């Protein structure tokens, strides 16, 4: 990679981070606007990969619109503006998908329904859970309203994990992690990612003592482990569909889905961790 390409990649990466930070730190409306946009683009990239060889029976535009509507409905639910619109939107989407088997005269209509539903489970559901985590303080400590700390921690842990794994893996990585899915990932990089993510958890424990140091460490380990799994899973999708990147929106980095793939699996794991933590 030459200096020009490296500078382009670094600049695009910094801009992406700044946009994410604006969405996280700017408050709930900034979160809603930025992450609904990210959701729509990620869904577009996913369904485009699924349509690489043939168009599907279910329109990707319909799936994208419904995914964004579900996300907005989740926001209205959390803001206590409407408790009914979320189940109405989700159930309407499912009923339309099932009804399409009657009206669409294509042999692959079932495949279209499966791809459609999986896209929402894979992308829309974690994005909604991410939003729910931003309201987690009202469940943990009796607070209310938007709280950026859990979401900020997830992204920082993911960035630390990815950066450490990349650089340490590039320098000393000799043993492949899961070669048939991602040949570039090494065991050395994987271990380094966990180590430095745990180190960063001590900073969060110092700045935000609402969680104990032990709980922050577990939080960091969960993000590191399941973030890596999310990266590997998207690599499997790309290998299956024979594409190098999900898109080319971010120069040197690929598409939006390539940037949030780790988060999509880490968030459900963190959400489950919070549920267990509350029950202890």
Description:
By secondary structure, this protein is mostly helical. It has two domains: 159 residues, no CATH class; 114 residues, no CATH class. It contains ten helices and two strands; from the N terminus they run H-H-H-H-H-H-H-E-E-H-H-H. The chain has a two-stranded antiparallel ribbon. A hairpin with a 3-residue loop joins strand 1 and strand 2. The longest helix has 29 residues. The radius of gyration is 19 Å and the shape is globular. The model has no long low-confidence stretch (mean pLDDT 88).
Give the helices and strands as they follow along the chain.
HHHHHHHEEHHH
- Rg, nearest Å: 19 Å
Give the low-confidence spans: none
Oligomer: single chain
How many strands in all? 2
Largest sheet: 2 strands, antiparallel
Distance between the termini: 49 Å
Q: What structural class results from the helix and strand content?
A: mainly alpha
* Order of strands across the main sheet: 1-2
SS summary, helix count: 10
Estimate percent helicity.
Answer: over 70%
Shape: globular
Portion in strands: under 5%
Keywords, please?
two-stranded antiparallel ribbon; 2 domains; mainly alpha; single chain; 280 residues
Short description:
The chain has 280 residues and is mainly α. It has helices at 3-25, 28-50, 60-78, 85-103, 109-133, 137-140, 149-172, 187-207, 213-241, 256-279, and strands at residues 176-178, 182-186. The chain folds into 2 domains: 1-26 and 148-280, no CATH class; 32-145, no CATH class.
């Amino acid at each position: 990679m030459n200096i020009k390409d490296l500078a382009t990649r670094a600049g695009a990466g910094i801009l992406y981070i700044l946009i994410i930070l604006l969405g996280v730190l700017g408050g709930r409306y900034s979160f809603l606007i930025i992450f609904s946009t990210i959701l729509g683009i990620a869904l577009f990239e996913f369904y485009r990969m699924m349509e690489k060889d043939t168009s599907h029976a279910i329109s990707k535009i319909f799936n994208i619109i419904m995914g964004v509507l579900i996300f907005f409905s989740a926001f209205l639910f959390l803001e206590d503006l409407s408790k009914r619109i979320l189940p109405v939107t989700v159930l309407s989407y499912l009923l339309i998908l099932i009804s399409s088997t009657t009206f669409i005269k294509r042999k692959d209509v079932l495949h279209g329904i499966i791809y459609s539903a999986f896209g929402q489970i894979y992308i829309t559901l974690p994005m909604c859970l991410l939003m729910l985590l931003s309201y987690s303080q009202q469940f943990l400590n009796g607070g209310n309203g938007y709280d950026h700390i859990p979401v900020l921690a997830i992204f920082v842990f993911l960035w630390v994990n990815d950066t450490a794994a990349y650089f340490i893996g590039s320098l000393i990585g000799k043993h492949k992690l899961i070669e048939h899915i991602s040949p570039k990932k090494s065991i050395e990089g994987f271990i380094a990612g966990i180590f430095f993510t745990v180190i960063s958890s001590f900073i969060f424990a110092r700045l935000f003592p609402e969680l104990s140091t032990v709980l922050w460490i577990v939080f960091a380990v969960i993000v590191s482990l399941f973030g890596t799994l999310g990266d590997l899973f998207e690599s499997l999708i790309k290998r299956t569909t024979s594409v190098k990147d999900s898109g080319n929106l971010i120069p040197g980095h690929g598409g939006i889905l390539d940037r949030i793939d780790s988060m999509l699996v880490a968030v459900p794991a963190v959400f489950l961790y919070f549920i267990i933590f509350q029950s202890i």
